[in-house]
């Protein structure tokens, strides 16, 4: 299992006004995906897909469970 944080920065439109969005999201990857993620350089730009769920059965923290990664 690989546990990591994702940093996101973008410019979005909200109610017709520009807004800069910055956030950190906790993420987890299992099995082969964990090995793939572990081999990616820190700071690399990636596109991750997966689903949002609790970090673990006993946790209330939300996490992105990664199913796919593309280096961009």
Explain this structure:
Strands 1-2-4-3 form a 4-stranded mixed sheet, with helices on one face. The protein has one domain (2-71): Beta Barrel (OB fold (Dihydrolipoamide Acetyltransferase, E2P)), CATH 2.40.50. The longest helix has 8 residues, at 31-38. The chain has one helix spanning 31-38, and strands spanning 2-14, 17-29, 46-54, 62-71. With 72 residues, it is mainly beta. The model has no long low-confidence stretch (mean pLDDT 95). The protein is globular, with a radius of gyration of 14 Å. A hairpin with a 2-residue loop joins strand 1 and strand 2 (17-29). It is built from 1 helix and 4 strands; from the N terminus they run ββαββ. The two termini are 23 Å apart.
Structure summarized in a few sentences:
This protein has 1 helix and 4 strands. The protein is mostly beta strands and 72 residues long.
Supply database-style keywords.
1 helix, globular, single chain, 72 residues, four-stranded mixed sheet, mainly beta, OB fold (Dihydrolipoamide Acetyltransferase, E2P), 11% helix, 4 strands
